[in-house]
Amino acid sequence: MARKQDNDSARQPEPAQEARGDALRREMAKPTIASVTTMVCLTCGAEQFFERGVPAGLKCPRCGSSVFRTFDTPTERDEATIAHLEEEARSVQYGDASPQTAPEDVRDLEMQ
After folding, report:
1. Residue 32, Cβ neighbours under 10 Å: how many?
2. Which residue among 5, 37, 50, 62 sits deepest, i.e. has the most Cβ atoms within 10 Å of its Cβ?
3. How much is the pLDDT for 53?
C-alpha cells in the first residue's frame, strides 16, 4: 500500500523573493552594523547621540544652532568596523594642519 504524503511535508520551501523598487531601497537603507547616530554641532562642537532616529527640528542644547554633522558610531566591534575606523581616522598631532599634508602644501590665507 502506497503511503500518502501530507501536502505540507511534500512542499519544498519557497525561495525568498528579491526586494525590488521601494522595498529594495528600504532594505539597502538599513544599517549593516549596530550603531548610534552622533550629531555634532558645527557651531560649538557639542555632541548628541541617538539610538533610533534623529528628531526633526533638532537644536543644539548649548548654542541653539540647528546645523549638524552626522556620524554613525559603531556599538559592536568587528574586523570591518575596526578597519574602516582606522582608514577614516585623522591625525590629531599638535601643529598638524591636515593629515598627509606637507607644510609646503599649506598656504597662509592671510598672506598676500
Report:
1. 8
2. 37
3. 84
Distance from C-alpha of 71 to C-alpha of 37, rounded to nearest angstrom: 6
By three-state DSSP, how is residue 63 classified?
coil
Is residue 58 within 8 Å of 46, Cβ to Cβ?
no
Q: How far from the centroid of its chain's Cα atoms is residue 37's Cα?
A: 7
Output the CA–CA distances (angstroms, integers) from residue 6 to 3, 10, 13, 15, 71, in the order listed.
10, 6, 14, 20, 53
Question: In whole angstroms, what is the distance from residue 112 CA to residue 15 CA?
Answer: 68
**Torsion-angle region of residue 16: left (phi > 0), alpha (psi -120 to 50) or beta?**
beta
Torsion of CA 93, 96, 100, 105, to 10 degrees: -170
* Cell numbers linked to 7: 501536502
pLDDT tens string 9-26: 555 555 566 667 887 777
